[in-house]
Amino acid sequence: MGKVTGFLEIDRQVAKYEPASDRIRHFREFTIPLEDPEIAKQAARCMDCGIPYCHGPQGCPIHNQIPDWNDLVYNNNWEEAIRNLHSTNNFPEFTGRICPAPCEEACTLNLEDVPVAIKTIEQAIADKAYEMGYVRPYPPAHKTGKRVAVIGSGPAGMAAAQQLGRAGHDVHVFEREAKIGGLMRYGIPDFKMEKHFIDRRIEQMEGEGVTFHTLVNVGVDKTLADLQAEFDAILYCGGSERPRDPAIPGAELDGVHIAMDFLVQQNKRVGKENSIASVAWNNEPIVAGGKHVVVVGGGDTASDCIGTAFRQGAVKVTQLDIRPEPPEKEDKLTVWPFWATKMRTSSSQAEGAIRDFQIATLEFVGEDGKLTHVKCCEVDDKRQPVAGTEFFIRADLAFIAIGFAGPYEDTGLIAELGDRIEMNTDRRGNRSVAANDRDYRTSVDKLYGAGDCRRGQSLVVWAIREGRQAARAIDEALMGETVLPR
Q1: Helix H or strand E encompassing 7
Q2: Is the peptide bond between 140 and the residue preceding it cis, with omega within 30 degrees of 0?
């Protein structure tokens, strides 16, 4: 352990942001990184707990060995730090930017509201590794002669492909959009993560022998039967992209959109693609400039809509959340080390959004087929409307960001398979591909499933975990043994 008394002597510091007035004028990342000496000081705050909940199941689904690489950073051993981090996490530059950091919630120092700046340190390690040339292709020493197809190139698909490629298999990734990355590229705005980070990993993986195929919609352009004939195993990582049905009257009005329609288009513009047209999302141009915008939903996707709308020049953005306003501070002794419900303000919300809690969206109201207002009301603690509290909010655009209900079943691979693939349904009606988290096999020959399509909408760290574990299961099934970590 580097500095035994570091947590007593050093204050918590995290990366600062550009002022909101400056950052809303561009789509680039706006975090101001800490200098290396400050990163080392923050790493020195790690207590090296006897039971480090930060990298247990409460804190980190991929089990990053956080105390270990904190100590390595404190001792200026960046090369060993990235080697350690890569042993559990294929893409720390992704998670260091877009993961909500449950590890920090589980940090022992969070009992005093000053957790170790784990996310900031993780991003610094990844960025430093690129700067110093430590991230390079690691092609396998021997090829197995086995061929594996991966459907979907989000974090689960990319993690599985890299692991399988390094195990010596001939891996081919199929993506229906024009570029690799899935919703990590098309759903996450560049102001949260610029996409050249994905491009660098693609270059590394190609150097390791992974082959990428874009604009191939499996189930439409290429059938599963085709893949079964060509490959020894097929891993489906199609994500959970079907929006939850809002059941709000007036949702068909011009101006009412699913959140992902808006985000995908803007990411294609920022990525300088030839067209905003998408296989899965609405291709009608959506622009918030000069408009009053209402965002229905309180999660990360809603925040991404807020930040994107401001950058496009929205006049006013209002966010409606049906949940009660959370407390400013949680009761540590009842929730730690688990993720707590408390007031959190995203960088996008801090750019000027109006946030209304305990508000139900009753109807989208319009004239001549175009949205003009959103009808709302207050709700009680059981989310039931309170009589006499109805009101209207002016709206030229409304985005529905209330989550996802599973993979699309009326198009693509699952539509092709029909009743041949077993699906699970949870108590909320969300659907997912039936496969356990040990062997990841589906009910279809040679077909495995991992990521959000299997576990439901979740975090990027869970997707990476599932991709890595599915890769191990496939390697073991093909070869009879495996050295890939679980």
Answers
A1: helix 6-9
A2: no
What burial class does residue 380 get, using C-beta atoms within 10 Å of its C-beta: 0-12 exposed, 13-18 middle, 19+ buried?
exposed
* Domain covering 147-242+405-479, topology: FAD/NAD(P)-binding domain (3.50.50)
Coil, helix or strand at residue 258: strand
Site of tokens 């449950």: 102
Structure tokens at 122: 């993780």
pLDDT for res 56: 84
Within 13 Å and on the Cβ side, how many CA atoms surround 462? 18
According to DSSP, residue 35 is labeled P
CA distance 484 to 486: 7
pLDDT band at 437 (very low <50, low <70, confident <90, very high): very high
User: In the sheet that 316-321 helps form, which strands lie side by side, from edge to edge?
Assistant: 256-258, 397-400, 292-296, 316-321, 354-357
Task: Please tell me the distance from the alpha carbon of residue 361 to that of residue 385, in angstroms, as a whole number.
Answer: 10
Q: Kindly indicate the confidence band of residue 396, based on its pLDDT and cuts at 50, 70 and 90.
A: very high
CA 210-215-220 angle, 5° bins: 110
pLDDT at residue 453, as a whole number: 97
What is the mean predicted confidence (pLDDT) over 105-111?
96
Q: Which CATH class is domain 6-132?
A: mainly alpha
The domain limits of the chain are 6-132, 147-242+405-479, 245-402
Amino acid at 233: A
Q: How far apart are CA 13 and CA 20, in angstroms?
A: 20
Quote the CA–CA distance of 456 and 2 in Å, as a whole number: 40
Q: How many CB atoms lie within 10 A of CB 211?
A: 14
DSSP 412-472: HHHHHHGGGS-EEE-TT--EEE---TTT-B-SSTTEEE-THHHH-S--HHHHHHHHHHHHH
Question: How confident is the model over 459-481, as pLDDT tens digits?
Answer: 999 999 999 999 999 999 999 99
Closest CA to 359 of 428, 307, 297: 297
Fold of the CATH domain 245-402: FAD/NAD(P)-binding domain (3.50.50)
Quick: pLDDT tens for 198-241: 999 999 999 999 999 999 999 999 999 999 999 999 999 999 99
